[in-house]
């Protein structure tokens, strides 16, 4: 490495502190790794967060975003120093350390910092011997018992080719406690006509190709700024591996052995690029991403995996009604039932990738109907029944996947409807990915009385503001996903009152 020692590198980085967010300085030594994919934090607990980055070895030192090499040459370990502080100038340091990144994990860093103070904002940065990263900001979860309001953004479906990430620039400028991503963080396939930018390379099937695809997405400055600004929680959907996959196969990859090798590569690349703790890494044949977070006594948040353990897709709606079919798998169902049975918070949010509501018309292609909860009707009945039986306070479902903003009131059982609601559901539209036709969305709204709002032509994200008395959700749409400088507007907003699982419209339904 170069002649600049780490202390000098950090000092030089401090001299550049001027505005938020800071940009990483370009690599100073030719061929030396850089922090070109940015920094991230995640998994906020009252006493811990995970810090993430990944070193990139530029092929051409003048072009830090040259990710073209799909097969990277083996490279040795590279040490990075990390620091976490109470101020963005990183002078009030609370902890620091050294981490050895290795080629086996794409020189990614997953540092679980413990012993932090609850409900506190922190700033962090990484440095190699030659270069410092951008400064990231993060926040721990509130202390046990807290009823302080919590505000977070949630998002899904960010096809790189189908739009720019103006939504993330907007998000990065807000005051949020965390960000929740509900899946389709990357897409494996190119969308062809009408794209505003292009993926590099083919549909990924190998580890190198999945790493390159994640790097392409993470090269986006707006996505980087949203990661740098907040702690993220993430679940995945199908496109992190391949469209409409189910446990050990997919419609386009029916051979389990070959598919599982591809899934292993996809899971490893997902781990390498997400701010998740190092202990979830068990070899990548399986990866446990379900988790449970508490934000004081105000909000409990369950994160579900609806891909890894599901029954194979049904061939017809008659088959979809088979009571043995599972979306979450028996272990995850048991885990969730146990968690819900001891849930104490005022609001109980269950995050899963897709639309939970029944959608008996206007849902488009049959393959997509059968891929969603409508293809797993008994599993949906069990999930709703579990929430009902646990008697949790104020159940709220959130999802994505369908590239449509939906707001719905859920009955206790779609198969035997009875008066009264069990829960509300908010489904966030896509950050950029193509939505259904206006006709299909209108039919979904008209044909399903529990769905109160539907908009599939707009793209953006959602913000939830949770307090002791109300949960408010705002759907924010970007003015034009093809415009990198697009602004956002309020598409619709709703409130839910404590104890009343019903939607109160509070903002315009403009489109
Ligand atoms: Fe999607």
How many distinct helices? 10
Helix-and-strand structural type: alpha/beta
The shape, in one word, is: globular
Characterize the biggest β-sheet. 10 strands, mixed
Distance between the termini: 54 Å
**CATH architecture group name of the largest domain:** 4-Layer Sandwich
Percent strand equals 15-25%
Bound ligands, named by name, code or SMILES:
fe (ii) ion
CATH class of the largest domain equals Alpha Beta
Q: What integer value in Å does the Rg equal?
A: 22 Å
- Side by side, the strands of the main sheet go 5-2-1-10-9-8-18-19-20-21
Number of strands: 21
Quaternary state of the chains? single chain
Proportion of residues in helical segments: 10-25%
Describe the structure concisely:
InterPro entries: Metallo-depent_PP-like, PhoD-like_MPP, PhoD-like_sf, PhoD_N, Phospholipid_Metab_Enz. The protein is of the alpha/beta class and 511 residues long.
Map the helices and strands.
Blueprint: H1 6-15, E1 39-42, E2 49-54, E3 78-85, E4 93-101, E5 108-113, E6 121-127, E7 136-139, E8 150-155, H2 166-172, E9 178-181, H3 207-218, H4 221-229, E10 231-234, H5 256-273, E11 291-295, E12 299-303, H6 317-320, H7 330-341, E13 347-351, H8 366-371, H9 377-390, E14 395-399, E15 405-410, E16 423-427, H10 438-447, E17 451-455, E18 460-466, E19 470-478, E20 488-497, E21 504-505
Parallel strand pairs: 1-10, 8-9, 9-10, 12-13, 13-14, 14-16
Antiparallel strand pairs: 1-2, 2-5, 3-4, 3-6, 6-7, 8-18, 11-12, 15-16, 15-17, 18-19, 19-20, 20-21
Helix pairs in contact: 2-4, 3-5, 7-9
Bound molecules: fe (ii) ion.
Protein name: Alkaline phosphatase
Organism: Paradevosia tibetensis
InterPro entries: Metallo-depent_PP-like (IPR029052), PhoD-like_MPP (IPR018946), PhoD-like_sf (IPR038607), PhoD_N (IPR032093), Phospholipid_Metab_Enz (IPR052900)
